Amino acid sequence: MLDELLVASECESVRRAASEVLGQDVAQWWGELDDSEIFLNSNAQFAIAYYQIATWVRIAAQLPEVALVAGYSLGELIAYYVAGALTANETFRLVRERARLMDEAAAGVERDGGCMVLWRGRVSPAALAARDHAVAEYGLDVAIKRRHGEEVLAGPGDAIAHFVADLQAMNPGLVRLPVTVPAHSHYLARAATAFRDILAASAIAAPRITVLGAVDAMPVRSREAAIDALSRQIATTIRWDGCMEALAESGIDRVIELGPGNDLAKLVGAEHPQIAAHAVGDFGDYRALADWLH
Predict the structure, then answer these.
(1) In this entry, which stretches build a coiled coil (predicted)?
(2) Could you tell me the CA-to-CA distances from 217 to 118, 198, 212, 235 in Å, in that order?
(3) Domain residue ranges of the chain, discontinuous segments joined by +
(4) In the CATH scheme, what architecture does the domain 3-107+186-293 have?
(5) Segment 129-150, tens digit of pLDDT
(6) What is the SS3 assignment for 270?
(7) What pTM value is reported for the model?
(8) Is 144 exposed, middle or buried (0-12, 13-18, 19+ CB in 10 A)?
(9) Which of 222, 197, 181, 193 is closest to 99 using CA atoms?
(10) If we measure between CA atoms, which residue out of 294, 252, 259 comes closest to residue 276?
(11) Does domain 116-177 bear CATH number 3.20.20.80?
């Protein structure tokens, strides 16, 4: 995932910033992770942050004026880097602090097998009723509302396992996610409170480009609102459905997803076909993005 971005000359400043925060060369850190370690919360968050920041550095000069920035989960923090509210060094530092706090808050939660599950697909009313009953019975939260009929649930790993066992036959589209913390749920309330204090003491500034708050899809234009949005989302439902609606209502006609992957671009295209949406990775060469935009 990171190999090309770790050696690209245009990403050298990102590599220096990440290495400084890690206390070791980021390429060495990445190369030493085995397949199981990559999915540990702290490693996964830092790797995704590196991918998104480096990708932005690559493409920023090709873009016309950006009207809005939105981020999904960790991506909301990276959105403030894109919007000019954070330096790369400060962003990487906050990514590490956020992951640490989330891990500490989830320390007493069973995490084997993953703490999140994706519910999607057309199902019967009986299946929906069974889902709602199981969510309440096992103490799960709706972590992310992606679009109508599609959401991510979060909770302890054993509760997620019971939920999947109970509902898999009724909804074969269930996907257990390899996420080792119950993000965007009440289980991480302590992390949200602590991260607010860290953000308040950080160098985060008012964004130069409006950012959509992930929990309510409201525009964020001040430092205070950014601190509130980024702390709340750790333990509150992400309303990605609302963010997509806000993009459409704002007259946005093109959307670029930094990645990795193109899941969010596909969601935007499916829900709002009037918006042309692509991930950077959809192009064989990131420089081809300029041709599509112009």
Answers:
(1) none
(2) 21, 23, 5, 16
(3) 3-107+186-293, 116-177
(4) 3-Layer(aba) Sandwich (3.40)
(5) 999 999 999 999 999 999 988 9
(6) helix
(7) 0.95
(8) buried
(9) 181
(10) 252
(11) no
